[in-house]
């Protein structure tokens, strides 16, 4: 691209009728983007008239813009040579910075336009302790920040029963939990199976290594609170083996259950991934007996199916947790912003 700026026949690069005060221009401290646009166009086109035509302004107006900038900057932007007019070193450097500033201004306007049409509000999500869900949540938060910056996310740690109840009462908008029963008022999606195993204190290893279900039933057990999802799943397992167990202690979370088992209080029932981690550090022994599988759900209230925030959340979940893609209806997939 040529740096020489040719004068039009007999026309000065700067209009001699400009009488702006240099001191007044510099004192304002405000840059006129239209003037900067002219500076960039003249340098890029290498010709004042062509630049004016490109900007759809008159040649005198373009000259006025350049004169105003020279006054405001207090620097000559162009010099005359026998072959025409060329930008000074300052003119070239300032035109490059002006081009970047103009690009930033367009980006700013674009962002403002997106924000005007962007969804806003608050989404509260409840979740149980689950490695795969916890691994996906940071990516979900980043996805929201990138695509829907006006939506505020809140993530709460709860047990399964509390997640379900929170959705039903409206305390939270959606959540992740395990359950062996369906709730008619919730739209539930399966996002995977979780394997539950019987665990014992490491010191009980020889005692339970070859035990049968009837023999295990005679030992003390650590149970979760009656009515919790974990308690329901455990009761279902015991019924399937036609046994009744002897609870030594009731706790309200699966995490506390694992802590009590590791301290030798009794047997317990927990997810395999947690059991294997505890066994690796010498706190547990996984009893080699039949396991039980339960379903991990993502759910929200059926009454909220058409809520734009729930649809956006569903889309984000399908993006960061691929297994959920086939489980989320197409109506819950708004177009990517």
UniProtKB/TrEMBL annotation:
Q: Where do Basic and acidic residues bias regions lie?
A: 1-23
Record flagged with keyword Transcription: yes
InterPro entries per record: LysR_HTH_N, LysR_subst-bd, WH-like_DNA-bd_sf, WH_DNA-bd_sf
- Which GO molecular-function terms appear in the entry? DNA-binding transcription factor activity; transcription cis-regulatory region binding
Report the residue ranges that make up the HTH lysR-type domain in this protein.
31-88
Annotated region (Disordered), positions in chain = 1-26
CDD domains linked: PBP2_LTTR_substrate (cd05466)
User: Which SUPFAM superfamilies does its entry note?
Assistant: Periplasmic binding protein-like II (SSF53850), Winged helix' DNA-binding domain (SSF46785)
Q: Does the keyword Ribosomal protein apply?
A: no
Keyword line: DNA-binding, Transcription, Transcription regulation
Under PANTHER family, the record lists:
HTH-TYPE TRANSCRIPTIONAL REGULATOR, HTH-TYPE TRANSCRIPTIONAL REGULATOR CYSL
Q: Which family does the record assign?
A: Belongs to the LysR transcriptional regulatory family.
This chain's protein is named LysR-family transcriptional regulator
Q: Which organism is it from?
A: Bordetella bronchiseptica 253
**Top-down, what is the taxonomic lineage of the species of origin?**
Bacteria, Pseudomonadati, Pseudomonadota, Betaproteobacteria, Burkholderiales
């Amino acid at each position: 691209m040529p740096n020489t700026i040719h004068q039009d026949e007999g026309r000065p690069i700067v209009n001699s009728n400009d009488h702006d005060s240099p001191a007044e221009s510099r004192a304002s401290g405000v840059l006129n983007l239209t003037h900067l646009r002219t500076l960039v166009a003249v340098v890029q086109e290498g010709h004042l008239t062509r630049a004016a035509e490109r900007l759809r302004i008159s040649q005198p107006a373009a000259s006025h813009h350049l004169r105003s900038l020279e006054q405001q900057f207090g620097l000559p932007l162009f010099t005359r040579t026998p072959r025409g007019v060329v930008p000074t070193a300052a003119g070239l450097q300032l035109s490059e910075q002006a081009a970047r500033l103009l690009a930033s201004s367009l980006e700013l306007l674009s962002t403002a336009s997106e924000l005007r049409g962007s969804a806003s509000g608050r989404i509260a999500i409840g979740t149980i302790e689950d490695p795969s869900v916890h691994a996906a949540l940071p990516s979900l938060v980043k996805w929201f920040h990138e695509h829907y910056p006006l939506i505020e996310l809140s993530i709460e740690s709860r047990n399964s029963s509390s997640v379900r109840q929170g959705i039903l009462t409206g305390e939270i908008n959606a959540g992740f939990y395990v359950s062996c029963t369906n709730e008619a008022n919730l739209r539930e999606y399966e996002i995977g199976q979780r394997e539950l195993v019987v665990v014992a204190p490491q010191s009980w290893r020889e005692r339970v290594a070859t035990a049968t279900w009837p023999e295990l039933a005679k030992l003390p057990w650590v149970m979760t609170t009656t009515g919790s999802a974990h308690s329901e799943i455990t009761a279902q397992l015991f019924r399937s083996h036609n046994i009744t167990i002897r609870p030594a202690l009731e706790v309200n979370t699966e995490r506390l259950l694992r802590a009590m088992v590791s301290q030798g209080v009794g047997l317990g029932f927990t997810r395999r991934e947690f059991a294997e981690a505890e066994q690796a550090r010498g706190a547990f022994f996984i009893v080699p007996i039949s396991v039980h599988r339960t379903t991990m759900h993502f759910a929200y209230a059926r009454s909220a199916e058409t809520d734009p925030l729930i649809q956006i959340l569903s889309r984000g979940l399908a993006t960061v947790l691929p297994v959920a893609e086939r489980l989320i209806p197409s109506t819950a997939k708004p177009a990517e912003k």
